[in-house]
Description:
The chain is an alpha+beta fold. It has a domain of 127 residues: Lysozyme (Orthogonal Bundle), CATH 1.10.530. It is built from 7 helices and 4 strands; from the N terminus they run E-E-E-E-H-H-H-H-H-H-H. The chain has a 4-stranded antiparallel beta sheet with strand order 2-1-3-4, with helices on one face. Helix 4 packs across helix 5. The longest helix has 18 residues.
Amino acid sequence: xxxxxxxxxxxxxxxxxxxxxxxxxxxxxxxxxxxxxxxxxxxxxxxxxxxxxxxxxxxxxxxxxxxxxxxxxxxxxxxxxxxxxxxxxxxxxxxxxxxxxxxxxxxxxxxxxxxxxxxxxxxxxxxxxxxxxxxxxxxxxxxxxxxxxxxxxxxxxxxxxxxxxxxxxxxxxxxxxxxxxxxxxxxxxxxxxxxxxxxxxxxxxx
Length: 206
């Protein structure tokens, strides 16, 4: 089956309401629960224009005094080769795999969620089976399975990274039911925001 390259992040659907904004600009704020909201069409006075921090800082932060920084990109450590191979195999940006892995497990191959998600890419048992992963605790298999699933989702959503990430977190059915493509689930909205922020940081080489 032919695959399509994953398109750059499409943030218009991510936590946004209709409104005018300059092309290419992003706005964000952190709510009292620590959830990071990102949009290109701000409709809330709490949004601030996002600017790049210095290259040394290696992260994105809202413009303005006292703003809280987005989390810095972590290191894949010994899993960089597995990420590189999976990214090439499934035609995905390495930066995307790294960002998903950082948010899912913080690069812990033994991570186990309360719901039973396993390993670096936090694969559920059923997803692991569907992605032909025999041992979800094996880093190479886990990364390959997570990348394969991301590719299938990216194909399903025509390369829309926001919907792809939302489906990875909440499932395709939840995305199908959501009018804007991102389920109104705080965990999922927070997840998409964090992964997109880290993706941009990794993509910038930081």
